[in-house]
Amino acid sequence: MVEERITDGHRIAQLLASEVDGREDGELEYFSVTNADRDVQPTADGARAYDVVRRKKRIARAFVHEERAHLEFEVRQDVATEAASDVDLRVRPKASTPPRTLVFVESGAEVKRATDVLQAVSRALENTDA
């Protein structure tokens, strides 16, 4: 069997969008992909590809680079940081106002782990909404 590692940022972002829009298990039933830029071209700093929305509220934006993608979390950055670390995804804060947290998805194999981070953030939001 030939194993091919997907490291094209555009393709990784597409796979992530498919997981977010296509899966309806767990917390993913509350998510959708919106405002997609179908003509996005990868850049060194990352070009915005689409928004990740939970129950009509944007919680993250997806960006594409040449060899990876990243999610920029706008809410519950603490939970995103912990969940990403727990599933061995690279994570770092973004010095901006308001602050953001970046979670890097560096291969197609990491897409499911990125959805685990989205679900952890969703559960935290659900707990604060209650």
Short note summarizing the structure:
This protein is α+β, with helices and mostly antiparallel strands and 130 residues long.
Structure, explained:
This protein is of the alpha+beta class and 130 residues long. It has a single domain (9-13, 27-129), classed as Aspartate Aminotransferase, domain 1 (Alpha-Beta Complex). 33% of the residues lie in helices and 27% in strands. The chain has 3 helices and 6 strands; from the N terminus they run αββββαββα. It has helices at residues 9-22, 77-86, 111-129, and strands at 31-34, 47-54, 57-64, 69-73, 91-94, 100-105. It has a 6-stranded antiparallel sheet, with helices on one face. The longest helix has 19 residues, at 111-129. The protein is globular, with a radius of gyration of 14 Å. The termini are far apart.
Total tally of structural domains: 1
- Low-confidence stretches at least 5 residues in length (pLDDT < 50)? none
Give the overall form.
Answer: globular
What characterizes the major β-sheet? 6 strands, antiparallel
Round the mean pLDDT to the nearest integer and report it. 92
Strand order of the largest sheet: 1-2-3-4-6-5
DSSP summary: helix tally: 3
| Radius of gyration, CA atoms, in whole angstroms | 14 Å
- Share of helix, binned: 25-40%
The CATH architecture term is Alpha-Beta Complex
In CATH's first tier, which class applies?
Alpha Beta
The chain-level structural class is alpha+beta
Strand residue content: 25-35%
SSE ordering: HEEEEHEEH
